[in-house]
Specification:
single chain; mainly alpha; two-stranded antiparallel ribbon; 4 helices
Length: 163
Protein backbone atom coordinates (compact mmCIF):
# COMPACT_ATOMS: atom_id res chain seq x y z
CA UNK A 1 0.00 0.00 0.00
CA UNK A 2 1.30 3.41 -0.98
CA UNK A 3 1.74 6.00 1.74
CA UNK A 4 -0.36 9.11 1.60
CA UNK A 5 0.81 12.65 2.23
CA UNK A 6 -1.09 15.75 3.27
CA UNK A 7 -1.10 18.61 0.74
CA UNK A 8 0.60 21.73 2.05
CA UNK A 9 -2.06 23.96 0.45
CA UNK A 10 -5.47 22.25 0.65
CA UNK A 11 -4.56 19.84 3.51
CA UNK A 12 -6.16 16.85 1.73
CA UNK A 13 -4.48 13.47 1.62
CA UNK A 14 -2.94 12.40 -1.70
CA UNK A 15 -0.69 9.68 -3.07
CA UNK A 16 2.60 11.28 -4.12
CA UNK A 17 4.11 10.67 -7.54
CA UNK A 18 7.10 8.30 -7.09
CA UNK A 19 9.10 10.29 -9.66
CA UNK A 20 8.77 13.53 -7.62
CA UNK A 21 11.11 13.58 -4.65
CA UNK A 22 9.64 15.21 -1.48
CA UNK A 23 6.32 16.10 -3.13
CA UNK A 24 4.37 18.43 -0.84
CA UNK A 25 1.47 19.54 -3.04
CA UNK A 26 -1.29 17.50 -4.68
CA UNK A 27 -2.10 17.79 -8.38
CA UNK A 28 -5.14 20.08 -8.03
CA UNK A 29 -4.86 23.26 -10.07
CA UNK A 30 -5.18 25.61 -7.06
CA UNK A 31 -2.50 23.68 -5.16
CA UNK A 32 -0.11 23.76 -8.12
CA UNK A 33 -0.60 27.54 -8.39
CA UNK A 34 0.14 27.87 -4.67
CA UNK A 35 3.28 25.76 -5.14
CA UNK A 36 4.45 28.00 -7.99
CA UNK A 37 3.72 31.20 -6.00
CA UNK A 38 5.69 29.84 -3.05
CA UNK A 39 8.63 28.94 -5.33
CA UNK A 40 8.59 32.38 -6.97
CA UNK A 41 8.55 34.18 -3.61
CA UNK A 42 11.53 32.15 -2.41
CA UNK A 43 13.37 32.72 -5.69
CA UNK A 44 12.74 36.50 -5.54
CA UNK A 45 14.17 36.60 -2.00
CA UNK A 46 17.26 34.52 -2.70
CA UNK A 47 18.27 35.20 -6.33
CA UNK A 48 19.19 38.78 -7.34
CA UNK A 49 19.50 37.83 -11.04
CA UNK A 50 16.00 36.34 -11.10
CA UNK A 51 14.65 39.43 -9.29
CA UNK A 52 16.37 41.73 -11.84
CA UNK A 53 15.02 39.72 -14.79
CA UNK A 54 11.48 39.84 -13.37
CA UNK A 55 11.70 43.60 -12.88
CA UNK A 56 12.98 44.14 -16.42
CA UNK A 57 10.26 41.89 -17.85
CA UNK A 58 7.54 43.82 -15.99
CA UNK A 59 9.04 47.14 -17.14
CA UNK A 60 9.04 45.95 -20.77
CA UNK A 61 5.40 44.79 -20.46
CA UNK A 62 4.32 48.16 -18.98
CA UNK A 63 6.02 50.00 -21.85
CA UNK A 64 4.17 47.78 -24.35
CA UNK A 65 0.81 48.28 -22.57
CA UNK A 66 0.84 51.89 -21.29
CA UNK A 67 -2.95 52.29 -21.10
CA UNK A 68 -3.74 48.92 -19.48
CA UNK A 69 -4.77 50.34 -16.10
CA UNK A 70 -6.83 53.15 -17.66
CA UNK A 71 -8.82 50.58 -19.66
CA UNK A 72 -9.11 48.25 -16.68
CA UNK A 73 -10.54 50.99 -14.43
CA UNK A 74 -12.92 52.03 -17.20
CA UNK A 75 -14.24 48.47 -17.62
CA UNK A 76 -14.38 47.60 -13.89
CA UNK A 77 -16.44 50.16 -11.94
CA UNK A 78 -16.42 47.99 -8.80
CA UNK A 79 -12.61 48.24 -8.77
CA UNK A 80 -12.84 52.03 -9.04
CA UNK A 81 -15.38 52.23 -6.20
CA UNK A 82 -13.29 49.97 -3.95
CA UNK A 83 -10.11 51.91 -4.74
CA UNK A 84 -11.85 55.24 -4.10
CA UNK A 85 -13.10 54.03 -0.70
CA UNK A 86 -9.64 52.79 0.28
CA UNK A 87 -8.17 56.20 -0.69
CA UNK A 88 -10.77 57.99 1.44
CA UNK A 89 -9.85 55.75 4.38
CA UNK A 90 -6.14 56.48 3.90
CA UNK A 91 -6.85 60.24 3.71
CA UNK A 92 -8.97 60.14 6.88
CA UNK A 93 -6.26 58.21 8.71
CA UNK A 94 -3.63 60.75 7.59
CA UNK A 95 -5.82 63.68 8.72
CA UNK A 96 -6.53 62.04 12.07
CA UNK A 97 -2.81 62.05 12.90
CA UNK A 98 -2.80 65.86 12.92
CA UNK A 99 -5.88 66.46 15.05
CA UNK A 100 -5.28 68.23 18.36
CA UNK A 101 -6.43 66.20 21.32
CA UNK A 102 -7.93 68.26 24.13
CA UNK A 103 -6.45 66.13 26.91
CA UNK A 104 -3.15 65.09 25.31
CA UNK A 105 -1.00 67.09 27.73
CA UNK A 106 -3.30 66.95 30.75
CA UNK A 107 -0.72 65.42 33.06
CA UNK A 108 2.14 67.66 31.83
CA UNK A 109 0.20 70.93 31.97
CA UNK A 110 0.67 73.11 35.03
CA UNK A 111 -1.55 75.92 33.69
CA UNK A 112 -5.23 75.23 33.24
CA UNK A 113 -7.20 76.80 30.39
CA UNK A 114 -9.62 79.50 31.55
CA UNK A 115 -9.94 83.17 32.59
CA UNK A 116 -7.13 84.74 34.62
CA UNK A 117 -6.36 88.20 36.02
CA UNK A 118 -2.81 89.15 35.14
CA UNK A 119 -1.03 91.71 37.33
CA UNK A 120 2.45 93.14 36.98
CA UNK A 121 4.84 91.87 39.67
CA UNK A 122 6.16 94.68 41.90
CA UNK A 123 7.03 95.42 45.51
CA UNK A 124 3.80 97.39 45.83
CA UNK A 125 1.07 94.74 46.24
CA UNK A 126 -1.71 97.34 46.22
CA UNK A 127 -1.46 97.73 42.44
CA UNK A 128 -4.80 97.96 40.59
CA UNK A 129 -3.40 97.32 37.07
CA UNK A 130 -4.89 93.83 36.69
CA UNK A 131 -6.26 92.83 33.29
CA UNK A 132 -8.61 89.97 32.47
CA UNK A 133 -7.17 87.46 29.92
CA UNK A 134 -8.43 84.25 28.34
CA UNK A 135 -5.78 81.51 28.17
CA UNK A 136 -5.97 78.60 25.72
CA UNK A 137 -3.49 75.75 25.93
CA UNK A 138 -2.12 74.87 22.49
CA UNK A 139 0.59 72.18 22.44
CA UNK A 140 3.86 72.82 20.58
CA UNK A 141 3.29 69.69 18.49
CA UNK A 142 0.18 71.30 16.93
CA UNK A 143 1.93 72.93 13.95
CA UNK A 144 -0.06 71.41 11.08
CA UNK A 145 -3.08 73.28 9.84
CA UNK A 146 -5.41 71.82 7.28
CA UNK A 147 -8.53 73.24 5.64
CA UNK A 148 -10.64 72.19 8.63
CA UNK A 149 -8.46 74.21 11.07
CA UNK A 150 -8.67 77.64 9.38
CA UNK A 151 -10.81 79.09 12.18
CA UNK A 152 -9.29 80.15 15.48
CA UNK A 153 -10.33 78.90 18.88
CA UNK A 154 -13.10 81.50 19.21
CA UNK A 155 -14.65 80.56 15.84
CA UNK A 156 -13.19 83.54 13.91
CA UNK A 157 -10.38 83.46 11.39
CA UNK A 158 -7.02 83.64 13.14
CA UNK A 159 -5.06 85.91 10.79
CA UNK A 160 -2.73 87.71 13.16
CA UNK A 161 -2.06 84.88 15.58
CA UNK A 162 1.35 85.15 17.26
CA UNK A 163 3.27 81.90 17.48
Amino acid sequence: MKTKCRCKHCRHLFIPNPRVKDQQYCSQRACQRARKRHWQRQKMKSDPDYRHNQKESQKKWRQGNPDYWRKYRKNHPEYRAHNRQKQKDRDAKRRAKHLAKMDALKSLNKIKAGSYYLMPVSDDLANMDASMQEIYIIPNSCTHSSKSCKKGLDGHRSEGLIR
